[in-house]
Each structure stands twice: as C-alpha cells, then as structure tokens.
Amino acid sequence: ALEKKVVKSKVGEKVSLPCCYEIPSSESLHKYRVYWQKNITDVVLAYSEGNVISKHERYRNRTEMDPWNLTLWISPVEILDNGSYQCVVQHNSVVVCDQTVILFVTADFSKPNVTAEVSADSCELTEMVITCSSHGGFPKPRISGALNNVSVEWNASWVSESSLSPYSVTGKLLLNVTKDVNVTCSVEYSGFATSTSLLLSMFYSCFLSQNH
C-alpha cells in the first residue's frame, strides 16, 4: 500500500520515522538490505548483511536504526531534515516493502517584539506606527493582530535565506489612536503560536502645552 505517514517534530528533538517492515525473530538484519532515503536521491542510511554500507555526511552522528523494526531515529532534528523519506527493504534482492514518511519540522519563533512610534500628535488624535517582529522560526509564519480584541491586518514582510532556513517576520500598522488601545501581535506557524500585547495610551500633549 502506498500510504504516506506524516511525522511532526521540533528542532532539537529526537524523532522516529517508522519503516514498513519488521524482521521476524527467526531471522536477522544479515539477510536484508535496508535503505533509508531522503527526497528519493540522498541515502541517509543503508544496511547490507547487517553492516552500514552508506551514511550521508549531513546525518553523521545524528541517526540510528532499530535492527528489528527498522525505525530511523534522527537526533537532534534540524530544519534541513524537513522533507520526504523513504524506507526500502530488500530480502534476497526482492523488495518486500517501500514506504514514504513525511517529516514536518518546526522551530519556535521568538516572542514578538511590539514597538510604537508616534508620528503625529494633537489633542484629539495620536498617529502611531506599530511594529511587530519575531525571528528564528520555521516554517513561514502567519502574523495576525488585534486592537482591543478586534482583528487587524498587519502589513507583513518575511525574510529567509532559503526555503529551509529560519524565518524573520515583521508587521507594520499605521494607527490613529483616539483613546487608550491594547495592541496584540500573534505569530502562528504549523499549529503553534506566540503573541505579545502592548497598551498604548493617548499622549495629551496639547493639554500639557496649554497649562504652560
């Protein structure tokens, strides 16, 4: 059966990728060839007659395989490990199983840093630019916001060195504040979220100047 299993893991954790075959207790790994491949081309780990015959440089000292159920363990997980893996088992040069496992890797984003800069100030109105930024996470996040619990759209931009590098995200918001307002910024990624709130108060600068 061509069923695809999905495994989720966070950067730094130990993850196990299941294979599709268990060696009977009457036999041993010596009678099998086992290939763990990534994206079909890179051999992560391969065994023949009970010995390792191939090991990918990038996975050196980070992988081990269970000699019976052929589970592949990766530790510590890196962002670059994100992707599709294939376990292929051969017995007397016949393929007895071939299964794909998708590994989704996430890395936590930093708690958003929310700052406010006043661009204009009068008695009735304070105009502000709110900036929310977070970094170091994966995959590409969504940034959402709220003013006094009413949702707002950030003008967002993302930076990443490659599709498998940590992301930085920055959201900007131009606000006309007529009363005290609570701004919340949330960064969401792969089912996780981190958020920060900031209370903005009116700057009654005109009253101050009138009293002088």
From TrEMBL:
Membrane-topology annotation of the record = Single-pass type I membrane protein
> Which GO cellular component does the record give, naming just one?
external side of plasma membrane
Pfam name, any one: C2-set_2
Q: GO:BP terms for this protein?
A: cell surface receptor signaling pathway; cellular response to lipopolysaccharide; immune response; negative regulation of T cell proliferation; positive regulation of T cell proliferation; T cell costimulation
UniProt keyword annotation of DNA damage present: no
List the keywords (alphabetical): Cell membrane, Disulfide bond, Glycoprotein, Immunoglobulin domain, Membrane, Receptor, Signal, Transmembrane, Transmembrane helix
Q: PROSITE patterns under this entry? A: IG_LIKE (PS50835)
The record's annotation in InterPro entries points to:
CD80_C2-set, Ig-like_dom, Ig-like_dom_sf, Ig-like_fold, Ig_sub, Ig_V-set, T-cell_Activation_Regulation
Question: Ig-like domain: which residues?
Answer: 1-103, 112-212
Could you tell me where this protein is found in the cell?
A: Cell membrane
Q: Which Gene3D superfamilies match?
A: Immunoglobulins
Q: Which SMART domains match?
A: IG
Q: What is this protein called?
A: CD80 protein
Q: Which species is listed as the source?
A: Cettia cetti
Q: By which gene is this protein encoded? A: Cd80
